[in-house]
Amino acid sequence: MAILEIKNLTLSLNGSPILSNINSSFSEGYIHAIVGPNGAGKTTLGYVIMGIEGFRNFDGDILFKGESIKNLSVTERARKGITLAWQEPARFEGLTVEKFIMSSAKEKKLEVVREVLTKVGMEPEEYIGRAVDETLSGGERKKIELASILAMKPSLAILDEPDSGIDIASIENIFEAIKLLKSNGTTTILITHSLAVLKRAERALLLCNGYIVREGSVNEIIKYFGKKCLPCVHKNEPEDFDLKKDESRVK
Question: What is the DSSP letter of 55?
Answer without folding.
Answer: S
